[in-house]
Amino acid sequence: MAFLQAILQNYVANTPEVQGAAVVTPDGLPLASALPAGMDEERTSAMSAAMLSLGERIGKELGRGALERVFVQGEKGYGVLASCSPDAVLLTIASHEVKQGLLFLEIKRVAASIAEAMK
Amino acid sequence: MSDAFYGYLDRDAEMAAVIAKHNRQRLGQTFADWFKEMFTGMDNWGPQYAERRWKIGIVHVRVGIGPQHVVPAMATVVQEVSRRLVKEGKPEQLRTSLSKVCMIDLSFIEQAYLEVAYNAVQQETGMSEALFKRLIANGANSLI
Ligand code: HEM
């Protein structure tokens, strides 16, 4: 998955305030990651997939239509989960200084390029 | 057998309360059917037999009886069967065999408990089985 790794590294290096990213399968298996040191890749991947799955499920239950993203806002910043394709979930972590609108746009762009690369 | 079984359940306040909400006669009948099937069911052990046990598990989960209650309940069945067989002078081998059948049944019912719980969480969260197992494995690792 070298091409995914390259996309992620590029993404993290070139987007201010994005501190890490990972691509995982809907089953929670890590495919590629550029996460900050000390973050447990296996656990983060499984939890990300679980969160997205639950997000999709509750979105449906609440009649919110197709899911765009799951957004976690913490004291120290954000965690955002977005589906790239039926086979890939993108996790992005960003500091709280990030501009949300720009972050969402960037996530969309990266998710699309991951989907394209995985075809 | 059924009387011994429900007599045992009646001695526990929590279980007696659950039983009281149900038709005793019907319960006695379902138990008797189950007991009979332990002797006849194994002649053609297969999906249907497993399915019935699985359903018994589901029924108990729905009623809210924890798996920890099923083990001592099955122990009562084994004990009562043994008592009868000894009384009637039946060979030891028969006792051993019956105990084994009870244990196999118990493992089916216990398995159903786990699967019902897994399936329920999977359905509510939309998680795949693989993801669910991964979370359990990760969680278990971090518990040690
Ligand atoms: C060896 C353990 C047990 C066996 C073999 C057993 C067997 C059965 C069977 C065959 C049924 C009928 C299932 C169906 O409708 O398809 C049933 C239902 C039921 N059992 Fe048990 N049981 C056991 C333990 C217990 C315990 C510990 C309780 C505690 C109170 C209990 C309470 C009930 C109740 C309330 C129902 C009726 C549920 C309903 O119809 O809604 N059982 N059981």
Please give a structural write-up.
- The complex is a heterodimer of chains A (119) and B (144).
- Chain A has 119 residues and is an alpha+beta fold.
- Chain A has one domain: Dynein light chain 2a, cytoplasmic (Beta-Lactamase, 2-Layer Sandwich).
- Chain A has 3 helices and 5 strands.
- Chain A has a 5-stranded antiparallel beta sheet, sandwiched between helices.
- The two termini of chain A are 13 Å apart.
- The mean pLDDT of chain A is 96.
- Chain B has 144 residues and is mainly alpha-helical.
- Chain B has a single domain, classed as Globin-like (Orthogonal Bundle).
- Chain B contains 7 helices and no strands.
- In chain B, helix 5 runs antiparallel to helix 6.
- The interface between A and B is medium-sized, with 14 and 11 residues.
- Bound molecules: protoporphyrin IX containing FE.
- Protoporphyrin IX containing FE binds next to helix 2, helix 3, helix 4 and helix 5 of chain B.
- The site of protoporphyrin IX containing FE has 20 residues of chain B, from helix 2, helix 3, helix 4 and helix 5.
